[in-house]
Amino acid sequence: MIKRHYKILIAAGMTFSFFGFVMNKKSNANMEVLKITPIEQRVDSLLEKMTLDEKVGQMNLYNGFWDVTGPTPKEGSAKLKYEHLRKGWVGAMLSVRGAENVKEVQRIAVEETRLGIPLLIGFDVIHGYKTLSPIPLAESASWDLEAIEKSARVAATEASAAGINWTFAPMVDISRDPRWGRVMEGGGEDPYLGSKIARARVQGFQGDDLSDKHSIAACAKHFAAYGFSEAGKEYNSVDIGTSTLYNTVLPPFKAAADSGVKTFMNSFNELNGIPVTGSEFLQRDILKGAWNFEGFVVSDWASINELIFWGHAKDKRQAAIIASKAGSDLDMEGYVYIRELVQLVEDGIVAESVIDDAVRRILKVKFELGLFDNPYIYCDSETEKAVIGKAEHHEAVLDVAKKSIVLLKNEQNLLPLQKKGQKIALIGPLAADKNSPLGSWRIASDDNTAVSVLEGMKKYTGNTLIHEKGVDLVDGHAAFIEEVVLNTTNRDGMKEAVAAAKTADVVVMVLGEHGFQSGEARSRTELDLPGLQQELLEAVYAVNKNIVLVLNNGRPLAIEWAAEHIPAIVEGWQLGTQSGNAIAQVLYGDYNPSGKLPMTFPRNVGQIPIYYNHKSTGRPTNDNDNVFWSHYIDKENTPLWVFGHGLSYTTFEYKNFKVHGDKFSIGDNIKVTVDITNTGNYDGKEVVQLYIRDLFGSITRPVKELKGFELVHFKKGETKTIEFMLTNKELGFYNNQGKYMVEAGDFEVFVGGSSDTKLKDTFTLNY
Ligand code: BGC
Asked: Is the whole model's pTM more than 0.90, yes or no?
């Protein structure tokens, strides 16, 4: 009965949108009942019709039939997946893409199963679908929330045209460890910036109306603390205190939840002894309890099954009990729920209410996406052809790519390059690479579709450009852990590169990591330039010191020699499809860079974890000139480049910084202003950053915490007054019970263009 009803809805999709419009204008008593009943009631009435098998089926997520993003489980044959689809035992699929392919699986779910419940179609739309934006870490360096939101919007528009209705993004894991390859997927090291970015990305993916055919459901991942994997090693244990959990790890997740993100994904790590997929504390107490999150939680790839390998569950049966009770609603490629849950409910071990709660959450998102009204809303090949790769998408990703570039160093004003009369040697294994700039997590994009730096620079025809690769850089795709693969020994091109450099006015070297050397399962123990690149850099430097080093990398690198010797360094990350155009425009000064690092760059691996918002320690300085203070004996405490660092072709002067008042009461709004002048020769943008230090607290506070920022454009010579407001929201912290509190005390406030700004004022906060 219900099945027929839904089919009628599909056929009459157009009419119902019209009714929807009328409904807004005036109430119509005769209107179709399902359309006007709130989603919760539609969910409940469907749930009543479902058998236990069908309910558990909704909690089952299968990978599609080709792209694989995790270890392939023995159980997962295509035959079995189709069989389960037809029985209504599959609630969602991932990595099925293309309007026609999605339509086919959706058709089976809607037309061949008893209840015709449509599928969620998930995909890792991490930084674009086919037209790629910069990797998320790079985009975060823009500090440009509008551009970040727009980039997610472009991604959603293309992905939805290819049949996808759910992305496994944004990743909002804070991390302080660049050895961990997945830092490329996130917003960096800071919870405040990370929270703003989380909100922008959720908004970009989901838009204002989830049922719009260009909006897709977002997924905040990986809940939680995956970014703190011990020693930066992938899939490792996490052991952190409650203060770090509440104040550093959770805020971006909370921001995503508060922004209405529809789904969460848990993670592969354990947290303080409990694999998070089985963590009731995280999923039930915090997420669904304290935060009142009404969406669902998807496991990570087979992470329910992995409870066994963690030594937390004896077998699949126990894994199913633990994960379902803990609040993991949907089993991704784990084959655990589908195998165990029905029996567990029949045996009275898992309460049916646990299943009902999970299914309700999953169905609710399907209703919100409009899939019951039209399950094929995302499956139109004509739209797919028209939308994917549109010129305006290329413009948007070029725009955000330029904004993501960080000028790390620019001595002797080597940059911008002159447009005429120079001989430029372009050297390095990544200079002509059209694949690597696409970065990791780019499953739907076509290989070799990025604009290379060589192609970008060729557009500037006033100079002579010679190109030499120098050495090879191995595609990290094959280089899972084999050191030998990372370290190619072929020096054949070195001589030509050095010869080219010798005769050049300026050498532009494009070095770094291949796009597949960061990302999932790409942890590294060294953060140098892989292979023979350092040797190449030094060989070129020996004959020509006028080097502009353009870095392409998915994580902070420890390149102390380069930072010391090379006069100009540009952080060019992996910038996606328009990479080379963005880099060339910055090198030639057609775009004045304004990016700021979202993550600290260490001097060497031994300093890790190194981050700006660390604690003071009891022995922060060597004032008395003795050895017993917090430091290393072989390396300074400072990093290579601090969080928030980034230069411009122009310069900014900060003046008249003040907190308006000395004494305040908790709850007051505290006004802070500063005058900033563009004192250089170019128009340009500055990310004005506001930090606080709470000088003493019942829980020790970091030496600096970002609490505000504004991206401001200044014309040459222009002065602007920038105002910030500090409120309870910025001045408090979570105690070890997870309670937010604001304490009286003395505060320092800093403002500047990076986290090591010394421009300071103070105030006292009273009860
Ligand atoms: C990753 C997730 C991803 C999932 C599906 C897992 O290996 O950890 O981030 O969404 O695969 O591709």
From this structure: yes
